[in-house]
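Appendix B. One record, verbatim.
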Amino acid sequence: MSPLGIGLETNLQAVLSGSTGVRQYAGNAELPEPYAASKFDSSRACFAEVQGLAATVADVASLTPFEQIAVAAVVDLLRTHPELDPSAPDVLFVLSSTKGNVDLLLSNPADSRVGLSGSAQKLALCFGNPNQPVVVSNACISGLSALIVASRLLRLGCYRAAVVVGADIQSPFIIAGFQSFKALSEEVCRPYDAQRQGMNPGEAAAAIWIERTAETDIRPDDIILCQGAMRNDANHISGPSRVGEGSFRCLKAVVSEAEKARLAFINPHGTATLYNDEMEAIAIDRAGLSHIPVCGLKGNFGHTMGAAGLLESMLSAVALQRGLILPTRGFAQLGVSRSLQVSDKAQPATGCQFVKLMSGFGGCNAAVRFAIGPYGDEQSAMPSRRCVLQTLRRVVINDSGHVVVDGKSRDYQAGGNALLTAIYRREVGDYPKFFKMDLPCRLGFVAAELLLSQDTDRFTPRDDRAIVVFSRSGSLVSDRRFCETIKPGSFFPSPAVFVYTLPNIVTGELAIRHKYLGETASYLLPSPSAAVIDDIVAATFLDPHTRSAVVAWIDCADDNHFEADVRLVCAEPTH
């Protein structure tokens, strides 16, 4: 669901007709600069329908607008597929979002409802689900990350099915942040076009039911998630690799030479920013896919953040079911350095597969290859056995000055914030970027330094080590700090602060420091549940490139209260 309407069919027809939910919003006291966005607002009648859908399972007044659209998306899914049972004990809820209820901080910095874990629990309880839901907050790739981890957990046999929900709403917090980067267009965005001026923020929600199915039960029009991958650029936390390194590696991981002939199109990130579109064009060309049609949907919906990966994947899948390649609204003249085949109008599709591609802050990238109907035996050959996790090293740090490295205490004669600086000065001392980082990143940085100091090949680029971070509070410390920069009357949004208002930025900082080009992911949980964490880490090792992982619980409730438990983990397959 989006400001263009409710349901897949409605939104698909809107794309085919060239409609857009994006319109210009004039500057006001909260946001003095004009911007263009696609939002559920008083002029969009479909939000009343959203609230009506949510009211069938919950007291709407108890839900925030973000929670309302997430709940309504699941209600609509069940309305069209009444045979599904989301309350079953073998069904998992996965919520994908970048900022959730962050707008609440602007009116009440102490509002406890801002936590995404709480929203995920509300969502699951609305449908009687008994399991601890998982929140994926991995910047712009969150939707694809959620699909990847959910599908892996099903392959491991942890669950029979999963409800994957992606949602985000826009607020002065997010708009001001992108304005601080000068990344917004005042007009409807134009992906890959020579006249593109920037991105449009968007609001949407999407819900997808996935389940593991025997190959013999696949029907000709079933949508199959064949393979997914996440890779980091290890380059910069707020800008993509100029050569599309992570995006290229994702494409290589999910599209074999044999699969290239089956591809009908690529649905890219396509934000219409100068660097994103150029980077993606280079990555697609490097992967030998520049002859494959490309169709982007940001001109219809804007950048819907945590919903984007799900919304755009499902619209692309339904289009392919009907033998279509969707148009790229706003595209007229190619404006990237590589010869992309950008689809400027709806056209017939040849092929039975497509790739969804996403990139985001923190250097993260993701790709998923989907197929329509039977797809051969590639997926059945993919590993699905649970591995035995072995902890090689471990570091524990908390705000009281407690530092334990592999079971041995170390005394730095400091506590609180001063402890992290003391560790840095004694153990590192030559990485001045440390002082620009926010608290979660500084905490993760020093813990990783203690953890990895024994590595003989440190700082040698590698793609076989993942970084998997779990947290309760996410980026809340930086969220509050950014709110201070956008107060009415003192509106000076800081890009240096805004870039840290994503929970996954710590994974980007660690990838850059240690030159890790493998998978990076960020999850939010209400507590460090060993069972949930072990399941997700075991699922991480289903990526055939991953041989080891830095697994971290990093939580900073405020500037004076923090904890880190960081492990280096390897896996041994069971026999």
